Amino acid sequence: MITAADRPVQRPARAKLLAVDALGRIEHTPRSALIDRLRAGDLVVANDAATLPASLRGTHVASGRPVEVRLAGRHSLSHDDVREFRAIVFGDGDFHTRTEDRPAPPPLVRGDRLRLGPLAATVLETLGHPRLVSLAFDGTPDDVWAGLARHGRPIQYTHVPEPLALWDVWTAIAGPPVAFEPPSAGFVLDWRTLDALRAHDIRFATLTHSAGISSTGDPALDARLPFDEPYHIPATTAAAIALAQRDGRRVVAVGTSVVRALEHAARTDGTVHEGDGVADQRIGPASRLRVVSAIISGVHEPGTSHYELLRAFTDDATLARTLEEMSAHNYRTHEFGDSVLIERHSSSRN
Length: 350
Prior knowledge:
The chain has two domains: 3-51 and 165-348, 3-Layer(aba) Sandwich (QueA-like); 56-151, Thrombin, subunit H. The protein is built from eight helices and 19 strands. It has helices at 34-37, 141-151, 191-199, 219-222, 235-246, 256-265, 305-310, 316-328, and strands at 3-4, 16-20, 26-30, 43-47, 50-51, 55-60, 65-73, 84-90, 113-116, 119-129, 132-137, 177-179, 203-209, 229-233, 251-254, 275-279, 294-298, 332-333, 339-343. Strands 3-2-19-17-15-4-13-14-16 form a nine-stranded mixed β-sheet. Strands 6-7-8-11-10-9 form a six-stranded antiparallel barrel. Strands 1-18 form a two-stranded parallel sheet. A hairpin with a 2-residue loop joins strand 10 (119-129) and strand 11 (132-137). The protein is globular. It starts with a strand and ends in a 7-residue tail after the last strand.
């Protein structure tokens, strides 16, 4: 059985890396040896999104009952586009209770008001589930940003018992604050690693993707994950991908969010253009990967949307063996856990 990492340490000294090559061969290494699993000429692409303090405690005004609102999506990455969000709403409690055991919120209907610390919001509509709503904050974008900064906390789950600080969930390359949960595959990166990439002639580029929530606590709602997520691909990253493709080099995605963005942006010939988009696809075993050659990711459990995405890289038998190996070697799951590097299976190459 694989257990969850329970301490908010991004780069623990004993972190492990399980590597799976294109033939399905498995090897265990320390995660500190990641650089040795990459090749000169590889292009490593990471998500530079910083994590929002997207958990807001407050009150459902009509009933007076406490709620927790977890922001879970918005229409774009624009700094000014912060009035309307998709959100998951829970009843009383916090991360010390398992998400699956959290009580439902009071019945929510269009027009309901929520008081969330210094912020106030209106439910615009329910979205086919008692916990899922769209809402609009009062005030200007600056008012919303200030309220989030003053009152919000990182979304958190019970496997980490101590409250998370915002710096616990920001990667070393964090830039625009647009992620709802951390793009935690990027925890493998620090400035020393980036220097090592350069020294080994491994190229590095970034994109910005609004990484969404990993769990809602309800199987029916979890089945709708991942939600639509906006992204931005800079011109420099599009050019670096074109160069790697021209030279027959690997494009290595740091995290599932990078895979979603690049594969959504890809044209049928694998060309990736700069600009904005909204990743609205689901990637799984039937998906044809046009851009990404390998993925660096966390340890994910079957049934999650992240695990489904890994099925696009290798076959189910290989993934089953990886789970057996990780269980036998005491790997840790979730955002502060260990890592995998999976190269696209030879049978799925274009």
